[in-house]
Design a protein that fits this description.
The protein is α/β, with parallel strands linked by helices and 381 residues long. It is 56% helix and 9% strand.
């Protein structure tokens, strides 16, 4: 079971254990069924756990074989094989969150989609154990915000600025524009990266002429997409401000000077419409985008990078087994994987989380597991 949880393929396990894939699946399913629920582990150490209350939450698609209903019988479908694991009917969604300062995962829920019912159940459980939810960092989902406010009306909501900027860049098609500009800037850099004094006059003249052409092309691109590029830069400057006061000043500049003046200028109508739409979206979202600046003492994370990292780790395990035969086996497997993650020591934390290395998430949250020799036995029913 432990090997399976580490993501080793069934083929390697078959060779190592000398048993077939079907038997291995049955063994793993039997053992994962014998574990306590992750939430029960949290309750078991509840009197020791000292959560900060800065929760980072997200959803993760889990491939599960669907059941196709007909008038006569139920037929089991196929497990989706998409490398991107797109959110289709055949699958479930894992809702989970981590306490940001210690990275521990107190609870998770399993559902058909990222809907209000699943979020409601998630926050109800956190409320039942007295989790001190101070802030909630999520990507842009109205359902999760409503559910959180239902049980924790005073919690501060922070939208992930990384997701928000990615959304803006996608609508503006900034990536393609930047690629064109950067390609020409790199060509210019290559022209003069060597020792110019060693170049013969003809080569130097060619380099200067080529560079002039590339500069002109860059200028034309910047002029053509000036409105889109400038809008992106000012939004980035707002979200990356050093403090809330500076962010507000930049917002006032955007509203009173940038947009009124630029709207009157002869930019393409299509670009104006795009920026107008994004301006309305920013006005609607700004309350939740600047929470980390407005409440600096709460130390609110402004991205969901923490839980996205856990998503990536889990995806490596899921890709090695492709999917699950049923919701029960999927939930049991993920339950054990999360428990294992909580008891595994950090080794690669960097920057201001470097101090977590050498400890497990549940230890970092305050639990004393110094006498725990085998986490598997501790967590089995």
């Amino acid at each position: 079971m432990t090997d399976h949880l580490e993501g080793i393929s069934y083929r390697k396990l078959e060779k190592r254990r000398g048993v077939n894939k079907k038997k291995l699946c049955q063994t793993v399913n039997y053992l994962t069924k014998s574990f306590k629920n992750n939430f029960d582990i949290t309750k078991q150490f509840l009197n020791q756990l000292k959560y900060a209350g800065n929760l980072v939450l997200d959803g993760k698609y889990v491939p599960v074989k669907e059941i196709v209903s007909t008038d006569i019988l139920k037929i089991f479908g196929k497990i989706p094989k998409s490398r991107k694991r797109r959110k289709v009917v055949r699958g479930k969604v894992l809702i989970w969150g981590a306490d940001w300062p210690n990275h521990d995962i107190p609870n998770f829920e399993f559902g058909d989609s990222e809907n209000g019912f699943v979020f409601d159940k998630y926050f109800y459980k956190l409320k039942s154990i007295g989790y001190p939810l101070i802030s909630l960092t999520v990507d842009d989902k109205a359902e999760v915000i409503r559910a959180a406010k239902r049980y924790f009306p005073n919690c501060v909501i922070q939208l992930c600025v990384k997701h928000y900027l990615a959304k803006i860049n996608k609508i503006l098609s900034i990536r393609n524009i930047r690629i064109k500009i950067n390609a020409r800037e790199n060509q210019i850099e290559k022209l003069f990266s060597g020792n110019e004094s060693e170049c013969i006059p003809a080569t130097r003249f060619y380099s200067i002429k080529t560079a002039a052409r590339l500069f002109n092309e860059i200028s034309e691109l910047r002029f053509k997409y000036e409105l889109l590029l400038d809008f992106q830069e000012i939004i980035i400057s707002i979200l990356a401000a050093d403090d809330y006061r500076i962010a507000i000043i930049r917002i006032e500049s955007l509203e009173k000077y940038f947009w009124p003046k630029r709207f009157k200028m002869a930019f393409p109508k299509q670009h104006k419409n795009i920026v107008k739409k994004l301006m309305a979206d920013f006005r609607e979202s700004r309350e939740y985008l600047l929470s980390y600046l407005e409440h600096p003492r709460l130390r609110i994370p402004n991205t969901t990078n923490l839980i996205e990292g856990y998503n990536s780790q889990l995806e490596l395990r899921l890709s090695s087994i492709r999917g699950f035969e049923s919701e029960t086996t999927a939930k049991n497997y993920i339950n054990v994987w999360i428990i294992k993650r909580r008891f595994s020591k950090f080794t690669d934390c960097k920057k201001h989380f470097k101090f977590l290395n050498g400890k497990s998430p549940i230890e970092c949250a305050g639990a004393d597991i110094s006498n725990v020799q085998n986490w598997i036995k501790l967590c089995q029913i």
